[in-house]
Amino acid sequence: MKKIFLVLSIVTLLGVNAKAQSGIGIRGGASFFNFGGEDVSENDYTNRAGFHAGIYASILGAGPVSIEPGVYYSVKGTQNDDIANTRAILDYVDVPVLLRLKFGEGFNVFAGPQVSFLTNSRFEGDFGGSTLSLDTDSIKDTDAGLVFGLGYNLPKGLNIQGSYDYGMTPLFKNSDADVYNRGFKVSLGYTF
């Protein structure tokens, strides 16, 4: 309940700030996530395709520097190319606050912190022609990290960007394993 209240509060503040300052927009696209960290072997996991979608506000957006808070639903996880094609599917509400620097004709770079709130986690595998799905409570409820990337503003409010999410909070509860959410996002957005 606390998570839902926090997310609704942030969405409300985004809407008020966006209306008072600059613009609000929607953004979504493909995500390619994997587990990273010292305790993850490169041969264990491969990128798992997912998606993300949500809203953002561009505060002080008229100048070369803007602040961009957002709220996104994001599907992360990883995949193992073993005989059962096992995979972890982690659903989050991401709340980034980005500093965006504009340069050249439409280009921008951005970076900032992000807090993610776990909404669902499950492990799946294919066994004997069917898929077995198990909900799990072994994943921590919050994940903190950094986001950085490159964007381009197209005409008529459209924008595209590529970003990297660098998780910095170990994923598993009651474990010393050095395992984190890490992944790329490719997005298309529209600022109203």
Automatic annotation (TrEMBL):
* Position of the signal peptide: 1-20
- Outer membrane protein beta-barrel domain location is 21-172
Tell me, what's a Pfam family for it? OMP_b-brl_2
Fetch the InterPro entries from UniProt: Beta-barrel_OMP_2, OMP/PagP_B-barrel
The protein's UniProt keywords, in alphabetical order, are: Signal
**What sections of the protein cross the membrane?**
none
Keyword Magnesium in annotation: no
Q: Which domain of life is it from?
A: Bacteria
Q: Please give the name of this protein.
A: Outer membrane protein beta-barrel domain-containing protein
